[in-house]
Amino acid sequence: MKLSAQWIRDFVEVPVENRRLAEDLTSVGMGVEGILGRGEDTIFEMEIGTNRPDAMNHYGIAREASALYDLPLRPLEPKPPSGNSSSSHPKTETVLFPIEIEDGEGCGRFTARILRDVRITASPANVVRRLGLLDQRAINNAVDATNYTLWEMGKPTHVFDLDLLEGGKIIVRRAREGETLKTLDGVERKLSGEDLVVADAVRPVGLAGTMGGFDTMITDKTRNVLIESAWWDPLIVRKMSRRHGLHTDASHRFERGADFESTLLSCDRVAELILQSGGGKLMDGSVDRIARRIDQAPVVLRLSEVKRILGTRVERSQIVRMLERLGFELAGGETETLLVRIPSWRLDVEREIDLIEEVARLYGYDKFPNTLPTSSNPVFELPDAHKDGKLRNELLALGYNEAVSLSFLSHEEAEQFSDVSVIELENPLSEEASVMRTSLAPGMLAMLAYNLNHGNDNVRLFEAARVFTSAGHAAVEMKRIAMGVTGSALSPSVHQPARPFSFFDLKGDVETLLHSFEHNSLLYDDRTAEYYHPGRSARALMDGEPVAQFGQLHPATAAARKLRQDVYLAELCLEPLYRHDLRRTACESLPRYPAVERDFSFLFQDSLPFDEIRRACHDLSLKELRSFVPVEIFRGGLIRPGMYSLLLRATFQANDRTLREDEVAEWSAKIIQALEALGGALRSQ
Question: DSSP for 20-51?
């Protein structure tokens, strides 16, 4: 949202320059995210919370600055001219224009004023300039007056061509089935009984709180104008806006709650602006129909509670000053309890804690001393906190960035990425988020796709979160970690070319995480989910229990999600993994005696995995065998089909002596015997 710094200064004499003003406003919750232009053309790009529609305008921000700097706020006091006849004291006509409110729940108040003999022309230069700074297009003096009032004081209004309203009256009612309304954007909209409309005696002429009608809009031929300012129920406007796919500046404010008491003031401001530029006569009085009051109960504010919540004492006089600058009315004399009447524009303030928050932000969060909360309960550590921290730190060290995805999935994704019972949401946001997630994989893939679609081709993400499944009438939560990678394993430089990330890079990262835990065996097989590439994926089993699956995403799944480059995914199941203790760091002296290496070249059947080879050697329980690793694998050439040649290297070493040749020969013979028992054949040198 863009707001003009100079327009804010029209209402309060701010004693600081614009950059400091932006910083100070941000410190009290009125976020200024950027500053454009300079001098009188300075524009603040602001982020206003959805609960503060009162601050989505220049007067609202000026009110905040008034409280922040303890300066007087110039009141909004429009004084529309009464006419422009030759008489020095022209008499205005008496207005009698019937307004009926049939739906008092949807429309709490409807105020109107009438102008006659108006000349529709271009707006004055200062109005056009200010609207232009806010990226608002000038149309004509009548329409621009409503836009100017909206951005000045935050109250949406509308102007009708009075002569095009049939039947001489306005009715606020629900639309009838089959009725249509052509809105100002030129779209013919089919209405339903759920829509609230402004109608004349014959037809709808406006979609309440959202957009006016095309057939009664202001044109160059308009001479008589009806100005409307109303209060619409936020929920009704929100539903209509979503139903018709129509989000406007007006609906944005009405959806969040407009100021009930500003209808007369805003009508007068619009009339003043139109009459200043287009002349005409303002008819005496206004039509002000009130169907129901929006009364806010006063709130009791205890100074003792302010101190308890904020941890420091704020002087009573300071609290009174800040709240009165914001428009609150206070009573209570010199007591320690204040009775606070809430202004009509602050619908977000309902409880004592809301008032304390107002005091805190204006007092300055940076002024409160840092203190630890007092508690009679003992401090305890969450279960598995050390293990969670260990894995998170390892992932960050490996170059992964932590990410967070939505906790909901569609039925289709739940079926594709898991085979467990889902938990349905009673009131889902959409069909794409109708069940609790049963897997982290869809969210991870969505985040990778988002990065790729925004030009980030090298991505490493991880998410540590819970997945959900139902077991009868109970919900079960399980802790998971998902890792997602796409792009290069090595960035290009003058020393090396780029290298694409591969399955073995991911396997190395997964092994780094798993080796943080104590275990007797860590084996791998190819029993992974269908969304993994069948030849480039694996499942990890720690002491015989599955703890992870990882690999390249299946090409069909990648194509369905429009992923334009290879994506690698890993999923860790933390419940079985956390049944293992973290590996303790142990130090030992460097060996004093030399190691001895022996190489073995064997032929094996393709069906024999290396894990069985390693296990066979491990079962020999050779104390001096320090490592047993594959060095080279070869297929083809003179090797028969269905076989592969594997060069293995065994390293022997003792801590207390130099090994003898006969000892190494004996252990080597045992290794050969164990591998031959697996069907291996020792190749001749």
Answer: HHHHHHHHTT-EEEEEES-GGG-EEEEE--TT
What tokens were used for 105?
């729940």
Q: How confident is the model at residue 88, as a pLDDT?
A: 35
Q: Enter the pTM of the model.
A: 0.61
> Per 3-state DSSP, what percentage of the chain is helix, strand, and coil (rounded to 5)?
30, 25, 40
Question: What is the rounded distance in angstroms from the CA atom of residue 62 to the CA atom of residue 603?
Answer: 84
Look at residues 291, 316, 358 and name the one whose alpha carbon lies nearest to residue 55: 358
Tens of pLDDT, residue by residue over 162-195, are 999 999 999 999 999 899 999 999 999 999 999 9
Amino acid at 12: V
pLDDT of residue 458: 94
Q: Choose among 287, 278, 281, 112: nearest CA to 206.
A: 112
CB crowding 596-612: b at 16 or more within 10 Å, else e: beeebbbbbeeebeeee
The CA distance from 291 to 491, in Å, is 68
Report DSSP state, residue 123. Answer: P
The segments of the chain whose pLDDT lies below 70 read 82-96, 333, 373, 685
Q: Structure tokens of 316? A: 């009573």
- CA dist., res. 598 & res. 625, Å (int): 11
Q: Are 575 and 617 in contact (CB under 8 A)?
A: no
Per-residue pLDDT tens digits for 109-126: 999 999 999 999 999 999
State how far the Cα of 378 lies from the Cα of 543, in Å rounded to an integer: 37
Q: 152, 176, 191, 174: which is closest to 62 by C-alpha?
A: 152
Q: Which helix H or strand E contains 486, and what residues bound it?
A: strand 474-486
The tokens describing 534, both together, are: 């069948």
How open is the CA angle 666-669-674, to the nearest 5 degrees?
Answer: 130
Report yes or no: 162 and 226 within 8 Å, Cβ to Cβ: yes
CA distances from 157 to 54, 112, 232, 320 (A): 15, 10, 11, 33
Q: What is the pLDDT of residue 294?
A: 87
Tokens coding 597: 């290496």
Whole-number Cα distances in Å, 623 to 248, 387, 626, 653, 664: 77, 31, 8, 9, 12
Q: Given this model, what pLDDT does residue 82 score?
A: 62
For residue 296 the two structure tokens come to 């806010």
Residues in the chain: 685
Give dist(CA 552, CA 502) in Å, integer: 8
DSSP string, 343-381: PTT-TT--SHHHHHHHHHHHH-GGGSPP-PPP-SSPP-P
List, for residues 343-401, the tens digit of each pLDDT value. 999 999 999 999 999 999 999 998 988 877 677 777 777 889 999 999 999 999 999 99
Instruction: Please tell me the predicted confidence (pLDDT) of residue 94.
Output: 45
End-to-end CA distance of the chain: 79
Say how far apart CA 181 and CA 204 lie, in whole Å. 6
Residue 280, CA distances (Å) to 81, 112, 127 in order: 9, 17, 19
SS (H, E, C) 244-306: HCCCCHHHHHHCCCCCHHHHHHHHHHHHHHHHHHHCCEECECCEEEECCCCCCCCEEEEHHHH
φ, ψ of residue 392 in degrees (nearest 5): -65, -45
Q: Which residues contact 375 (CB under 8 A, 6 or more apart)?
A: none
Name the phi and psi angles at 435, rounded to 5: -135, 155
Residue 577, exposed/middle/buried by CB under 10 A (0-12, 13-18, 19+)? buried
Q: How many angstroms from the chain centroid is the CA of residue 369?
A: 31
Going through 579-624 in order, the beta strands assigned E by DSSP cover: 596-605
